[in-house]
Records
---
Amino acid sequence: MLLQDCVTLRFRMSGRYDKILKESLRGVLHVLVSEVLGIKAKSIKPLKTKLQVTDEREADFLLEITLQDSSSYVLHIEFQATNDSNMPYRMLRYRIYINQTYGKPVKQVLFYVGREPLRMKNHIKDENLVFEYDIIDFRSIACEKFISSNTPEEVILGILCNFAPEDDTIVIKKLLNRIMETVKEEVGRLKYIRQLEVLAQLRDLQENVCKEVSKMALVYDIERDVRYKQGMEKGMEKGIERGIERGLLEGERKGLLEGIELGLELKYGLAGLELMNIVRAISTVDKLEEFKNLIRKAGSVDELKEFLGKSV
């Protein structure tokens, strides 16, 4: 991937961006619970995040925490990338719905990952109503906690933390080197580098990350490596085949969509995944089959967009 290609991977704060951010953070919940929140749990169980009482809301993450004394509660974690003056009321609604749905005590934590200084309140104090929850600004967390991790999902979170007293460039190099050390497979390494680029947008550091990636030849050389290309093609083929096999059991269209999504991610990364909302609007299996075959042959995302423009 060239620097100019990397810089074009910019997302506005939208549903798709939030989805990518959430997926990037899903794998590190355990370290946030244990290391940042200091919760010493006997067990942690993910809960369904859709809460339907009179209307439906979906929380970012809900975890059932069981402590050493066997007592338990629901930990509600939200990630917020912008200052929202209505956040306390949103959190209060979540609190009510979670209580009604699970019937357990609730602890709420909002992690702020935005680029602007934190300005949100964490409480409501009105007549006959006092409500409060915790807010943690990622900038208050030392990045070394994540850089020293042996898990790449944790390492990439370092881009959101407090760099002081080190320079941005030094920290970015450390993060990239740590990804190199913890991920030996080139395809997997590329995945985490791309996730790092996405998170870097929240600190206006995406261009800096892309420059260092180019200097270190982490992505540019990988994508021109014969073994990488073979591995990518093989992985895409397997993904599509797996999707089709599942389709025989779960419905051919669902299987095709699954294979297409994996193929887009492996060949085009985040830029390819952005097309999935349009792909899902294709109503016929024949058109999906045609698009699946086009993924193998197309030389750019623009070719795929042109096809989708005529098909939807």
---
Amino acid sequence: MIHPTAIVEEGARLATDVEIGAYSLIGPDVEIGAGCRIGPHVVITGRTRLGRNNRVFQFACIGEEPQDKKFGGESSALEIGDNNTIRESVTINRGTAEGGGVTRIGDDNWIMAYCHIAHDCQVGSHIVMANGATLAGHVVVGDHVIFAGYSGAHQFCRIGDHAFLGMYGGVSQDVPAYVMVSGQPPRPRGINSEGLKRRGFSGEQVRNIREAYRLIYRSGKSREEALAELDLRLPDQPELAIMIASARASARGLLR
């Protein structure tokens, strides 16, 4: 299952059925779980752990040192969950001591060619990053987020669950759950209603989320006033909880 030209350094821990392609390099502190398939010319290094059934395509570089001038060689890690697809030439860096020490990626993500996930990012599950999408350091991404081609997020931004970033949309402020962003410069354009319907949200739930969006973005109320009003709706509209939480957690301010 390991090509004779691949290099697996002493100390690496691989499940018995892991496949390693030609000319790939697996570092001594790497752990790769059952069912993983690593293509040719892949580099996986550092204190990196991959869970089960991940597929990594050729020329990807996983777990390399963070691109941070303050990094001094301290021990840091990258943790990747299960069932992720990591396509050609993707780069994912491990964390920094200043940022908590660990970059994390969840489960069932689809990360297309030439994407970059920087140090200390905390990425959820079921996300799609189309070709060339980029996350700077310390970005937090929720579940079911879609990044269209060449979109991305500035360092320390937070992208809430079910959000959608349109093509070339590079955001420098936070995007709450459910919100769709597009244009240049990128601006909120409504909610990701099609995505929500595909994921089983009812028509009533989508309407409730749309009304919450209007209250936050179009009512003229301050963020605190809008969120306080949405708090009152929670008993009957629990789907608003993640939208409220993501908006309230914003430290960089909401993208408007």
---
Amino acid sequence: MASSLADAFKKEGFRLALVGGPVRDAILGRLGNDLDFTTNALPNESKKILKSWAESVWETGIVFGTVAGKRGDTTVEVTTYRSDRYDEESRKPEVAFGDSIEADLSRRDFTINAMALELTQGAPLFIDPHNGLEDLAKKLIRTPTTPENSFSDDPLRIMRAARFASQLDFSIAEDVLLAMKKMSSRIAIISAERVRDELTKIVMSPNPRAGITVLVETGVAELILPEIPKLQLEIDEHHHHKDVYEHTLTVLEQAIALENRLGGPNLVIRLAALMHDVGKPKTRALIAGGGVSFHHHEVVGARLTKERLKALRFDGNTIQDVATLVALHLRFHGYGDGEWTDSAVRRYVRDSGDLLTHLHVLTRADCTTRNKRKAESLASTYQSLEERIAVLMEEEELSKIRPDLDGQEVMSLLKLKPSREVGDAMDFLLELRLEKGPLGAEQAEIELMKWWAARKQS
């Protein structure tokens, strides 16, 4: 596929090289169907060639020199040699097209992404002016030029270094780490959407702990996700051996280990695990005689989570789902040693809604105690709860809990028109359904009329 595209560019007198991530991934033995190329053809010329080669072409990135196309299962992006950089205060790069692949490679983020395979000059030629192959072997993240120059060109590269540490399990060169700390404030000029996308890639990586740790240690997290480094200041009353920050990273890892219940990697559960205790710093209180408490930290945490994810421009559904899980993550612990009534089980299912399995995963992951007996007891108690839920699900269709009477029946019985009183009646019937289980229409009518008579007398 790459060779046929190269032939199309060569026929028109242009050079084409496979570049960046695909070259890196090919060396690592995991080349996919998304290929990046660089060329000396200007964007409009690339578009013309791609239209003759690809089944579909799009040019949303043409102002930045990139034209994309798809042929079969392969998607390609072709970008004109570039030498752009960021202005000191700008959120967008100043695009300038270059005239050599060597100059193009020198402006790339890291040496492991600054390798190319030239395809139009006879036999394929491997181009590696910055020893990226050696850094791949060393599992080292380094910049082609000085890290200060690289991060000035595009400050988002500071986050990308953390992302590659997470995705590839690589270490970051000492001079790169120092520059990340020194220049972390430059992240402020990057749009929230680009920051969000990099953060998402870190969180969804095989080892998010590595990237998050880098963000915290370099000071970047204080600017983009300040709630996380603040957790280092808190000691969890249930986990005296570790701070809440360490507990949080462990919960994230344990949630990932349970993701098969959600069908695979899941952004909502990972964000919920990361944010579940962010309310603790604001709710910390000293207990007489020693110790601390964090009463209602789940409520405060849900609010902080909404605010942060909204600032990072996450979509509304993700924000709501993550905040809901944060708000509910302590619900299981509110029922002592498992003395759950049917009513409590119904409310648990009703409040979690479509996120019930997510809540199962988060609650189980939130147990990080080193006390083996305590951990086994908690797991056993929660297993019992899940079994209770399964039984009631089958008996009562808990996921479809509704009052035993509908609005029309309520208005007919109480001789009401649509009004707030009808809503109050429906709320009463729903609470009755949650408390007593399915009663049937006849018994529900009796209970409704009793409630209505008492209301009229009060």
---
Amino acid sequence: MIIQERNLTPQQIVSELDKYIVGQKDAKRSVAIALRNRWRRLNSDEEIREEIIPNNILLIGPTGVGKTEIARRLAKLAHAPFMKVEASKFTEVGYVGRDVESMIRDLTDVAVSMVKQEMQERVKEEAAQKAEARILDILIPPVKTSSAGFSASSNSDFDPDNASDSELNERTRERFREKLKNGELEDREIEIEVQSSKNPMMQVFGPQGVEEMGINLQDMLGNIGKGNKRSKRKLPIKEAREILIEEEAEKLIDHESAVQEALERVQKQGIVFVDEIDKIAEDSSKSGKSGPNVSRQGVQRDLLPIVEGSTVNTKHGIVKTDHVLFIGSGAFHVSKPSDMIPELQGRFPIRVELKSLTENDFVDILSKPKNALTKQYQAMLKAEGVTIHFTDEAIRELAKIAAQVNSAVENIGARRLHTIMSSLFDELLFAVPDDINSGEITIDPGYVEKQLANLVKDKDLSHYIL
């Protein structure tokens, strides 16, 4: 169940983020306030509401400290359309590549899918009934009759010898309907006719406007013959039911109102996370020099009106970006926030510096979050019938190794834990279930030492593997 933002105070938002992200209190505090401010704006007096602009946030910190995860979790809490983009993928107008407006078009696509999914959930019960009727028609096709139809009678009054074809047919259908409801026919195969999902794909990169034209062409070509292309598939009833429910739900929802609601949600609640924004900030010490990154400042100038507030044409309609929340993120190792053009700097008034992760942070990351790596590996191996236990000392040893490798090779933050855990469980994951198919295994410092000692000692090897 997704918690709606209107029910969450800033402190509750931070508490929710704490379940998945270790440390970074300042960043959590800033994004919590920014999220709550959106609710405050929507509930403020109408005459001032449009004047309240979002306070965009710039997250500054090395890789792997939780910048992206904070934004992603925030979007889930807000139940808001969310799009993560990398600033380095965009080019200024006139260069071959994606223009900055495409981030809003992608965000709108996400919102439309989100709203349609919600609408389908609301009509799922009705869609399930229609899907069951379709399955029943395939199993026992109804008999066409010109009479008023079969009238239900008690079992004691029913005489099979004197019953009409329609009565016998309806009796049979009733028995199969009960079997369907009781799940007795789940593995039985039926042939269903479904909408073909294969549409022509086209994407055009180039000067401003051409990419949008390419999307419109794709949309038009995709609609040619749509609704006529159907294919037959033979599936078990349990799989066919899911496909038919989705198809029936699609028919039941109002697509026009879904698009309108999605457009409104993008404009009022949309969140765009612009990662690697430091890559488009030109190092002031190298200013004036030409090179492969000559378009950096141009990308900033193209991004400025989107962040300030402008209208963007999408295939679903016009979107105003005045109240879209932008969260910028970057390591800023080479360039500095002050290297961005002044106008863009001013559009990210909240600056938060995220701290590098320490050994103690790694201990917490491995043990506290709901999605901790230790819990993920335990869940995977439990599926094979093997129970894994981690001792506190083993977790401390793993954290120590992660901190050492980060300082010796390259600091990639919490991502180092993924590579270390992968190496730690490499042998075990290969042995299960052929050599080990049940039982309990305790991961202690001795096991960690055995699996990782050579990698940690061999600096050249750790450089490539860890």
